[in-house]
Amino acid sequence: MVKVTVCGAAGGIGQPLSLLLKLNQQVSELSLYDVVNANGVAADLSHICSPAKVTGYQPSSKEDKDTIHKALVNSDLVVIPAGVPRKPGMTRGDLFNINASIIRDIVASIGKACPKAAILIISNPVNSTVPIAAEVLKKLGVFNPKKLFGVTTLDSVRAETFLGELIKETPSSLKGQISVIGGHSGDTIVPLVHATALVAKKVSGLSKSQYDEFIHRVQFGGDEVVKAKNGAGSATLSMAYAGYRFAEKVIGSLNGQSENSEIPDSSYIYLPGVPNGKELSQKHLKNAEFFSVPVILENGQIKSFVNPFDKLNVSSEESKLVDVALDGLQKSIDQGTSFVTGSKL
Ligand SMILES: NC(=O)C1=CN([C@@H]2O[C@H](COP(=O)(O)OP(=O)(O)OC[C@H]3O[C@@H](n4cnc5c(N)ncnc54)[C@H](O)[C@@H]3O)[C@@H](O)[C@H]2O)C=CC1
Ligand SMILES: O=C([O-])CC(=O)C(=O)O
User: Fold this and answer.
1) Which residue has the CA at smallest separation from atom 3 of ligand 2?
2) 86 with 157, same domain?
3) Helix (H, G, I), strand (E, B) or coil at 133
4) Which residues does the UniProt record annotate as the domain Lactate/malate dehydrogenase C-terminal (predicted)?
């Protein structure tokens, strides 16, 4: 019996993600919150013959905080794709001005209505919205770092797809064989492809320009979609798949299922709050507090993570990418954290 709430459920990501969640047999209650059209999406999905009871929640005004509270109460998992997407010419950082306060307010409601829920943040810029969420929960005195996840799965999905095309392997065979760490924006995204001997050997057969092009495509894959949609938004369907892929793991872990991949999907997490995270951060990450690493889940929270520097054969080239990523990440983390200081919750 798992209750899942989607905040931003009527959007480009929210709708297909809610559909996938509705199909999950382990979800007993699906609560759909959005400032527009939540009732319509809920009515539509509620006709699907799967167990989840679907309810829509739409606030009556900007001041209405009761509706989101009702949507959230008793949630085990809250997934947040609320906020604005990019248009051509924008960076994810350009979304900060609008999305920062949306995330702050939604997470404050979660902290009050269902402080024990696992929280998956999709809204960009993830590198800053997750620090915002952490800071809000700290301020409310309910922060559990093991239950706060920045969703970076789309980077892994892209890495599997693009590498599969290059080395002529089915992308699905690369799931759990490669890893993407760092953040979720441009050169903060660091694909690691030397973890298993089999894939490392195939990658060694690529030319330098093929390898560089692969790294660039994973780092800037989001731009390809923004450009192709030409003003109509960013990745929604691939993101719904990716968000669901991670949410399904959290739901499974709440029902006692354990991880079976050698290298599980990564998530952008608060390292000092998880076992051995502080040591990883001090030793390899210039004390960065937030970083995406492969996470192992248990009962809806982080049990442990795979230390890339111990287990994933990080090459010297990949180490350089980590250094570049850390510089960019720190600015985004600071921007997120300082946004909440002085904010009224
Ligand atoms: N983490 C990742 O890998 C990815 C993240 N994204 C991000 O996801 C976010 C959503 O993207 P789309 O679904 O394409 O946008 P969209 O504009 O289609 O949908 C966003 C939804 O959020 C709702 N919303 C706005 N303010 C809200 C609030 N205060 N409370 C509840 N709902 C609210 C809107 O009404 C809308 O239905 C964007 O910030 C985008 O950049 C997009 C792709 C990948
Ligand atoms: O590019 C964007 O703005 C949306 C996103 O995060 C992605 O597709 O990876």
Assistant:
1) 86
2) no
3) helix
4) 152-339
Residue among 96, 172, 62, 23 at smallest CA distance from 337: 96
Count up the domains in the chain and report the number.
2
**Protein residue with its CA nearest to atom 20 in ligand 1:** 11
C-beta 123 within 6 A of ligand 1: yes
Cis peptide before 81 (omega within 30 of 0): no
Binding residues for substrate: 86, 92, 124, 158
Q: What is the DSSP string of 110-122?
A: HHHH-TTSEEEE-
* Contact partners, residue 325, CB within 8 Å, separation at least 6: 182, 183, 187, 188, 189, 190
What are the DSSP calls for 35-80, one per residue?
Answer: SSSHHHHHHHHTTSSSS-EEEEE--SSTT--HHHHHHHTT-SEEEE
Residue 342, pLDDT > 80, answer: no
Pick the last residue of a domain from 109, 130, 150: 150
**Are residues 128 and 240 located together in one domain of the fold?**
no
Q: What is the pLDDT of residue 301?
A: 98
CB 291 within 8 A of CB 183: yes
98 with 134, same domain: the answer is yes
Indicate whether 145 and 157 sit together in one domain.
Answer: no
- What is the ipTM score, two decimals? 0.99
14 lines ligand 1 (CB under 6 A): yes
Query: Which structural domain, as residue segments, surrounds residue 211?
Result: 153-336
Ligand 1 contacts CB of residue 124 (under 6 A): yes
Q: What tens digit of pLDDT does each residue of 79-97 get?
A: 999 999 999 999 999 999 9
Which residues are marked as active site?
184
Instruction: Say how many C-beta atoms besides its own lie within 10 A of residue 143's C-beta.
Output: 19
Residue 48 lies in a domain: yes
pLDDT tens digits for range 87-132? 999 999 999 999 999 999 999 999 999 999 999 999 999 999 999 9
**Residue to probe by mutation, ligand 2, list 130, 226, 236, most atoms within 8 Å of CB:** 226
pTM equals 0.98
98 in the same domain as 161 = no
pLDDT in tens, 47-84: 999 999 999 999 999 999 999 999 999 999 999 999 99
